[in-house]
Design brief:
The chain is an alpha/beta fold and 291 residues long. It has 13 helices and seven strands. The chain has three domains: 85 residues, P-loop containing nucleotide triphosphate hydrolases (Rossmann fold), CATH 3.40.50; 37 residues; 157 residues, Aspartate Aminotransferase, domain 1 (Alpha-Beta Complex). It is 47% helix and 11% strand.
């Protein structure tokens, strides 16, 4: 008779077609799903399997351990996996992402996750859930990155990328860049272009713009179900300057001059300001650039 002594690695799917008996030592230490997987390693349709769960006689079992072993004893028929899963859910509870049960405290989850969940809940309460979850695609025809020469440590550079991408407002993005400049010196052009692109993305998310691209002589913006008020502003812009603006089937286009195209970031922000109907927005992109 051959005997295999091993760890719980066999639960990962080790194929043992000729084995019909398994002994689990200190079974009270395992979870219910682990015990179910281990038990399923022996036996075939034509070969009856036997599973013996062993515990230390001098060791007092906890209430939870006793319940787990009882569930395995009660459900031995084929197809009992669903019943065992339901029992496991009942024993452990469904869990609470931010509470004490099963998943830990908020400090283990992380502040960023908490803020993200809070923002989603607030957006849903305001009826803006789809817009807040929008991840706009922005192409300003500029190169944006964090050079290794500016932040040499890889982990620190990745953390900075993460902070920038998780910032939800232009002001928050600028604060991140300012803090990085305090540690690493003046930000190079690539970092400024990255932050500017992310700022545009934040404003696009707020307006419900799914994609913004700067082309040869114009900028295009594809919107996701714009509200009536926003559509009215877009149509008003087109009526006031038909040679510059165009709006057809949720796509808004803004034409720019060669001079304005040299600074696509300023031009795009000027156009977004017009769409947002800010009172202080100038009547021309050139005036915005000079400001």
């Amino acid at each position: 008779m051959d005997v295999l002594v091993c760890t719980t690695i066999v639960e990962s799917g080790l194929d043992m077609p000729n084995v019909n008996t398994i002994l689990v030592h200190d079974a009270e230490r395992y979870g219910l799903s682990q015990l179910y997987q281990l038990r399923g390693r022996v036996g075939r349709s034509h070969r009856r399997g036997y599973c013996t769960l062993m515990t230390q006689p001098e060791r007092k079992l906890t209430r939870e351990a006793t319940q787990r072993l009882s569930v395995l004893q009660e459900h031995t028929a084929l197809g009992s996996g669903f019943a065992i899963a339901a029992a496991d859910l009942e024993l452990r509870g469904a869990g609470n992402l931010l509470g004490e049960r099963q998943h830990g405290q908020i400090r283990a989850v992380g502040f960023e996750t908490y803020v993200s969940l809070l923002e989603d809940a607030m957006a849903e309460a305001r009826g803006q859930a789809e817009r807040e979850r929008l991840d706009p695609e922005v192409d300003l025809r500029v190169t944006g990155l964090i050079p290794e020469a500016w932040v040499r440590d890889t982990d620190e550079r990745l953390a900075l990328y993460r902070r920038l991408s998780s910032a939800r407002t232009p002001e928050a993005i600028r604060r991140v860049v300012d803090e990085a400049e305090a540690d690493h010196g003046e930000a190079p052009l690539e970092v400024l272009q990255l932050s500017r692109t992310l700022e545009v993305r934040c404003r696009c998310r707020k307006l419900g713009i799914a994609r913004l691209a700067v082309l040869q002589v114009r900028a295009t913006m594809d919107l996701v179900e714009p509200p009536a008020e926003l559509e009215a502003r877009l149509k008003a812009l087109c009526q006031s300057q038909p040679n510059r603006f165009k709006y057809v089937e949720r796509r808004f286009e803004a034409r720019f001059t060669p001079e304005e195209g040299q600074q696509p970031y300023l031009f795009v922000h000027w156009v977004l300001g017009l769409i947002e109907a800010r009172p202080a927005v100038s009547a021309s992109a050139g005036a915005a650039a000079r400001g």
